[in-house]
Amino acid sequence: MSTEDSKSAHLPPGSQHTLDEASIEKTPIDTETSKQSWDHGAAPDGGAKAWLVVLGAWCALFCTFGWINSVGTFQSYYETSLLHQYSSSTIAWIPSLQIFFMFAMGPIVGQLYDRFGPRYIILGGSFLHVFGLMMASISTEYYQLLLSQGVCSAMGVCAIFQPSMNAIPSWFDKKRGAAYGIVATGSSLGGVIFPIMVSRLIDEIGYGWAMRVAAFLILVLLVITILTVQSRVPPRPRAMSREALLRPFKEVKMVLVILGFVFLTFGIFIPIDYLVVQAMSAGMSSYLAQYLVSMLNAASLFGRMSAGIFSDKIGHYNILVSACFLAGILVLALWIPATSNAAIIVFACTFGFASGAYVSLAAALVVKISPFPEIGYRTGLLFLCSSFSGLTTNPIAGAILQHDEGSYTGMKIFSGVFLMVGSVAVLAARLSHTGLEWKAKF
């Protein structure tokens, strides 16, 4: 009999249908966290060092996910100017490679984090990210942008954001969701600032210098990340056993969470990447359309923070499932029929808010069901599996767009359905732990 079952069996009569923390909250990570507690003391849930880690991780998310969230601006610019001779589906490989390498390096970065800690990984990632953007600023050919922006910069992004997120659990326990939510607002604010900044700078000083200015801003913020992000628990410089590497694939909850994020990634990036070009095709002026990604990310800021805060009270899985399922409904029920400027703007804001949980709670879901020494590897594994969705989702969307002769309906259906399917898979992971206890906090 499992620990959870034995505890449930000794609950007072009638209490099974409102399972308390004794039966729901004790997961593998809780056991490992307790080991961590007597080795290194309980997580402080605050203090100067802890909040400096949050500041550094916030800067990391601003420079990584915030930058990736602005790819819709580049998709539009490349299609109309720099790479106008290429089709939409061909250009879509640039943001797709960004998403792929941002996630695909996850297990490697995760194991390096578990063995050596975050600082030197973030240092190397910062060099790759800034160098890639500098090379993109002097690129004039399609293959050059693929290598600089799609590969080099994206590999650096992975080595920055993943160690920064993985450092949070050692500093926060009861306030972990809130800490993740605050950190995730960095990506939202970056997604607000970068599209406006880059589009304005391209008009005023040209594409090359616009990219260089963005790279210099990123460099300054990453210096803060390098100086502040650290793990409270010392790393264990030993290689993982083969059994430990394969263990996540034998755990039903972990497999379902991975499948859920594979499906969610298929759906989540299509509105971000195609919102601007779809709005312009519907008659919105290019001046107004360039602000849509910023509107989406501004709403996402509130979605990510609220998802993190309420997840501490309601449960990480409960919040993510509800938010991402709502995002799928919004795509199918609001984005498909949206043709007016007002409807498209409303969709951008509501989808941004609902999709915020995808970023703010991804790592928290893994932490909830993982042994503490394996958090880096397991988080990386989740991102690796999701990377294949990130690699193919935009080219698939572009191919659907071409097949439908410029109609965006099929592409929107693809996005909405996968968001809902992914939410159901994560819900199945939650139910595999709690059973049909719908009010359980998990």
Automatic annotation (TrEMBL):
InterPro entries: MFS, MFS_dom, MFS_trans_sf, Proton-linked_MCT. One of its GO terms (molecular function) is transmembrane transporter activity. Gene3D superfamilies: MFS general substrate transporter like domains. It is a multi-pass membrane protein. One of its GO terms (cellular component) is membrane. Keywords: Membrane, Transmembrane, Transmembrane helix, Transport. Residues 49-440 form the Major facilitator superfamily (MFS) profile domain. The chain crosses the membrane at residues 50-70, 90-113, 120-139, 145-165, 177-197, 209-233, 254-276, 288-305, 317-336, 342-367, 379-401, 413-432. Pfam families: MFS_1 (PF07690). It comes from the Eukaryota. It is found in: Membrane. Residues 1-25 are annotated as: Disordered. Belongs to the major facilitator superfamily. Monocarboxylate porter (TC 2.A.1.13) family. This is Monocarboxylate transporter. It comes from Penicillium frequentans.
